[in-house]
Design brief:
The complex is a heterodimer of chains A (221) and B (191). By secondary structure, chain A is mainly alpha-helical. Chain A has one domain. The two termini of chain A are 35 Å apart. Chain B has one domain. Chain B has 9 helices and no strands. In chain B, helix 3 packs across helix 7 and helix 4 packs across helix 5. Classes of the chains: A mainly alpha (221), B mainly alpha (191).
Chain lengths: 221, 191
C-alpha cells in the first residue's frame, strides 16, 4: 500500500511533469491559454497515461524487446483514438479548442517515457498508480500555467472575472511568446525553490532539470 | 504560382511551426545546445516531414477516405511515420552512408517529434492538394530548421555569459525562444 502511494505521489511533486521532468512541452505551451483548456487537456492525458501504463505493464512479458517501442506507440495511439471519439461525443467545444493537440497526445513523450521507464518494468497496479500520479501532476501543472496566463491575459480565471474593471488585459501572455516566457519563468522559480529547500536541509544543490532527450529515454540517446 | 509562394513564406515566417504553432518544442529545446547538432536535426526534420506528409496524404486519400475509416487517422499516421522513419534509416545506412552519418542519430528521435505528425495532420485539416502538401511540409520543415539554428546560435553565446543559477539551461532557452517568437510576431501583418 505504501509503495502504491509512493509511486502515485512522486508525480505530484518530486517528479512533477512537466516542471521537474521536462517532457511533453508542446501541449504545455499550446493549450494553456486558459485554465479550462489546460484542465481538459490534463484529463485527456490522465486517461491515456493511466490506461497505457496498465496495458503496457500487462503485456510487458510477451513483447519482444526489439519491437517494444512500436507496441507502446500502437497502445497509446489506440487510446488516443478512444479519447478523440469520447471528446467528440461528450465535450465537443473542448475538442475544438484543443485542435490538433488531441491527436498529438500520442507523440507526447510523457506517455512513451513512462511506458519505457516504468510500466515495462513494474506490475500492473504500480504502473497504474504511476500513470495516474503523473497524469494528475501534469493536469495540476497545466491548470496552474493556464490559470496564470488567463489571469493576466484576459483578467479572468476559469472564465469568471477576477481582475478589477480597471485592469487592462496583458495580451502578450496569451500569445505564443508569452507561453514560452511564462514557462521559462515558472521553471526558473521551481529550480530556485527546490534548491533553497535543499540548502536549508543541508543537501547539495542540484543542477537544473534540463530538457534533454535523455529524460525521455525512448531512443537511448 | 503566387499561391505557392504565399504558402511557402507563411509557413516559414508567419506561421512558423515552432514559434507560432507550438509544435516540435521538445527537439527545439533539447537539441539546440550546439549549432552542429541543430543543423543535423533540422535537416532530418525537413527530409522526414516532407516525406511523411506526402505519404500520409496518399494514405488518407486512397485508403482511409474511400473506406470511411477517418477515425483511425491518428493510429494510421503514427504507424506510417514510425515505419517510414525505420525505412529511411535502413535505406540511408545502405545507400548514402555519409548522409546516414550526419542524420542517423537524429532519426529515431523523429518518430516522437510532434512537428512531423502535426504537419501531416495540419495538411489534412486544411484540405491541401498534393502539391500544396509537399510545399507546405517542406517549408514548415525549413521553418523549424531555421528557428532551431538561430536558437542554438543564441544558446552558444549564452553558455559563456553569466546567467542566474536558477535560470541556467532550459528556463533561459525558453525565454530566448519567447523573445524569438516575439520577433517573429512582426511578420503577422505581412500576409
Amino acid at each position: 500500500m505504501s509503495r502504491l502511494w509512493k509511486e502515485f505521489s512522486k508525480g505530484l511533486w518530486t517528479d512533477l511533469p512537466p516542471f521537474k521532468i521536462v517532457l511533453g512541452l508542446c501541449p504545455v505551451l499550446a493549450v494553456t491559454k486558459t485554465a479550462d483548456n489546460g484542465f481538459g487537456m490534463g484529463l485527456a492525458v490522465i486517461f491515456v497515461l493511466t490506461l497505457s501504463n496498465v496495458f503496457v505493464s500487462a503485456v510487458r512479458k510477451i513483447i519482444p524487446a526489439k519491437v517494444r517501442i512500436a507496441c507502446f506507440i500502437v497502445i497509446a495511439a489506440s487510446l488516443v483514438v478512444a479519447v478523440e471519439l469520447l471528446m467528440q461525443a461528450y465535450a465537443y467545444p473542448l475538442y475544438q479548442q484543443l485542435g490538433i493537440f488531441v491527436p498529438l497526445i500520442v507523440v507526447n513523450c510523457i506517455i512513451l517515457g513512462r511506458a519505457e521507464a516504468f510500466a515495462s518494468k513494474n506490475t500492473v497496479l504500480l504502473s497504474a498508480a504511476d500513470g495516474f500520479g503523473m497524469g494528475v501532476g501534469f493536469t495540476m501543472s497545466l491548470t496552474f500555467l493556464g490559470g496564470l496566463r488567463e489571469l493576466f491575459g484576459y483578467g479572468t480565471l476559469f472564465g469568471s472575472q477576477i481582475m478589477p474593471e480597471s485592469f487592462k488585459p496583458f495580451s502578450f501572455m496569451i500569445e505564443a511568446p508569452g507561453a514560452f516566457v511564462c514557462l521559462g519563468i515558472v521553471l526558473a522559480a521551481m529550480n530556485a525553490f527546490t534548491n533553497r529547500q535543499r540548502r536549508k536541509k543541508g543537501l547539495a544543490v542540484l543542477d537544473n532539470p534540463t530538457h534533454d532527450c535523455k529524460t525521455c529515454g525512448i531512443c537511448g540517446h | 504560382m503566387k499561391e505557392f509562394f504565399l504558402l511557402f513564406v507563411s509557413a516559414i515566417f508567419v506561421n512558423n511551426i515552432v514559434l507560432a504553432q507550438y509544435l516540435g518544442n521538445c527537439p527545439f529545446i533539447g537539441t539546440s545546445k550546439k549549432i552542429s547538432v541543430a543543423v543535423g536535426m533540422g535537416s532530418a526534420v525537413v527530409f522526414v516531414a516532407t516525406m511523411a506528409a506526402s505519404i500520409t496524404w496518399a494514405v488518407q486519400e486512397y485508403l482511409l477516405d474511400p473506406l470511411g475509416l477517418q477515425y483511425l487517422q491518428t493510429l494510421t499516421f503514427i504507424l506510417v511515420i514510425a515505419a517510414l522513419v525505420q525505412f529511411v534509416e535502413m535505406f540511408l545506412k545502405k545507400a548514402v552512408p555519409p548522409l546516414y552519418k550526419a542524420l542517423g542519430i537524429f532519426l529515431p528521435l523523429i518518430t516522437t517529434n510532434c512537428a512531423i505528425m502535426g504537419i501531416a495532420i495540419i495538411c489534412q485539416r486544411e484540405d491541401f492538394t498534393f502539391g500544396k502538401t509537399v510545399a507546405f511540409s517542406f517549408a514548415s520543415g525549413l521553418g523549424f530548421m531555421m528557428a532551431l539554428i538561430v536558437l542554438s546560435a543564441i544558446r552558444e553565446k549564452i553558455e559563456i555569459s553569466r546567467v542566474p543559477k536558477a535560470m541556467q539551461g532550459t528556463p533561459i532557452a525558453l525565454i530566448m525562444a519567447g523573445l524569438m517568437s516575439l520577433a517573429f510576431f512582426a511578420f503577422k501583418g505581412m500576409i
